[in-house]
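User: Can you help me understand a structure? I only have the sequence.
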Amino acid sequence: MKRKQQALASLSLMGVISFYLVVGFPKPAYAMHIMEGFLPVQWAIFWWIVALPFFLLGLRSLTRITQANPELKLLLGLAGAFTFVLSALKIPSVTGSCSHPTGTGLGAVLFGPLTMSVLGSLVLLFQALLLAHGGLTTLGANAFSMAIAGPFIAYWIYNLTIKLGGQQKIAIFLAAAIADLLTYIITSIQLTLAFPAPVGGFIASFTKFAGIFAITQVPLAISEGLLTVLVWNWLQSYNPQELELLKLIKREPQGNESV
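Assistant: Let's start by predicting it. Here is the structure, written out as tokens:
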């Protein structure tokens, strides 16, 4: 019965977030990640080759998690849904791309960056096929920036903050916010490599892309960090067993137990 209540609470949470982001913030139909066909063929192939090994390693990690702890499947689904909902909020930015939250920091902290490389890539695939956000040719590039680079930095930032004695909620905030920002630094680099400026080359082009992204992405990153902390608080209240299983929190001793 308790598991059913937790499942219902999980679905309710994602429903509220979905309504808030998707209905509360109407978005134009042309919203996208790096859109279909925008990258030159050689760069599209390059990023597919770079992203594919991480995806395959992530499949192994995901398989180990689900086989060892089947009870974590609901939490895996919630992490994927959180990423899907947040990254569905699009704000047009640089031509051929857009700004949006990523939602990958939470899953990276929960399950590690390799697992999020799979969840994030699947989110991007569904958005490309169902919502016309991004594309198949640019899936490798979008996956590397959002589903690989972002989760790895989130995982590293979280663990570094904890090792330095920082509070867990601060670590969660920093992990989510910096993962969001790094995603768009990588996207800026990808666009710069594909379209260097005729005058000024790489530096001039990167400054242009990153500067335009920063206008929308900095406040989005801060907002994502705060929202991720709220979801973390919710998980601690309604799903403490899963967090204990992942060794992210310690079980509080009960009154009838020895301390």
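Now, to help you interpret it: Confidence is low (pLDDT under 50) at residues 15-32. The CA atoms of residues 38 and 96 lie 6 Å apart. Let me know which part you'd like to focus on.
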